Amino acid sequence: MRRKDREVTDFNEIVAIMEKCDVCRIALNNEGYPYILPLNFGMTINDGIVELYFHGAREGMKYELIRKDNRASFEMDCGHKLLTDADKGDCTMNYESVIGQGHIEMVSDDEKYDGLCILMKHYHKEDFPFNKAMMRATNVYKLVVENMTGKIREKHP
C-alpha cells in the first residue's frame, strides 16, 4: 500500500469496517477480464479466518466462472463523505475500505440454512424469519479470506 498512513493493519479494526459495509463486490476470473459482482453478504470468523457468505439463484455466469477457477478478490467500502474547499479548489472523499483475496466454496444443502441466517444477521440484528421455501431456489456460497487489508481516508474540513 502506497499510503501507509491510511492503512489499517489491526484485524479487529478491519472487521469493524467490514461490519459497517452493506455491499461486497467480488471479482472472478473471466478469460483475462475480471467479472465483478456487487453482492449482499454476511460474515463469520472461525479461528481467525474471515468467511464471507453470499446467496443467489441456482445457476448463472458466476457459478460457471467459480467452477473454472474458485479464486476471487473482494472489495467493500463505507463511510463516504465528500469534502470540498472552494477557497483552495480542493475536493476529496472520506471513506473506509477493505480489499482482499480468497477462494470460494459452495455451501452444502445441509449448511444452507445457517449460511442464510449469517447473511440475514448482517442486515437484521434480531433473527429475521425468512421464507424457508425459497432455499430450494437459492445457492449459498462463501469466500474464505486468505488475506485482506483495510484503509481509512479521514480528513476533517
Description:
This protein has helices spanning 11-20, 61-68, 109-123; strands spanning 7-8, 24-30, 33-39, 42-46, 49-56, 71-85, 90-106, 139-153. It is built from 3 helices and 8 strands. Helices cover 21% and strands 48% of the residues. The two termini are 25 Å apart. Strands 1, 2, 3, 4, 5, 6, 7 and 8 form an 8-stranded antiparallel sheet that branches. It has 157 residues and is of the alpha+beta class.
DSSP E strands, number: 8
Encode the helix/strand succession as letters.
Answer: EHEEEEHEEHE
Overall mean pLDDT: 90
Number of helices: 3
| Main β-sheet description | 8 strands, antiparallel
pLDDT < 50 runs, ≥5 residues: none
Please compute the radius of gyration using only Cα atoms.
Answer: 17 Å
Report the portion of residues in β strands.
over 45%
Our measurement of the CA-to-CA distance between the termini, rounded to an integer number of angstroms, reads 25 Å
Q: Pairing-aware structural class of the strands and helices? A: alpha+beta
Q: What percent of residues adopt helix (DSSP H or I)?
A: 10-25%
